[in-house]
Amino acid sequence: MRDLVVVIPGITGSVLRRDGRDLWDLSLSAVGRGLAAFTRTVGALRLPDDVGGGPAPTHAAMEVGGLIRGWHLWPAIAGGPGYRDLLARLDALAAGAVRAFGYDWRLSNRHTARLLATRVEQWLHEWRRDTAQPEAKVVFVCHSMGASWPATTSRCSAAGSTRAGSSRSARRTAAR
């Protein structure tokens, strides 16, 4: 039996867009365009204080453009290779079975968990139908804060995760 594989990036690991333009994709080339552009971008990413546990209001909403795939950089803080290699390796192992769940990391974990549940249910339904594998399950591959949402599943591989503290926090939040 072949299961569905869902990759969930860490916080800031998803590309955020507005009006078709990437606002959050801290690739090395984007950083090279200058810190002034970075400062404007951070301002454009700001959410109103009263967003709470729901979606962003229309004027602050972003489209999710998938996972950051290339080398990226937080100026003077950290950098990393993005998710291109991970996705390619997983696809080589489970061709066609890999899905990437990008999310607007500015929003609440509760809201994102609801989106994840809806999306995974849809992907799993389609996967079972298209592969004629009615017993297929979901295997989560999570990085960092991405491990917070599937904390109650039986198969979750978490890398660089604060899973114990984050998942406890997410469960307490979801219980309220």
From TrEMBL:
Residue ranges of the region described as Disordered: 151-176
SUPFAM superfamilies from the UniProt entry: alpha/beta-Hydrolases
Ranges of biased composition (kind: Low complexity): 151-168
Checking InterPro entries in the record gives:
AB_hydrolase_fold
For this entry, the protein name equals: Lecithin:cholesterol acyltransferase
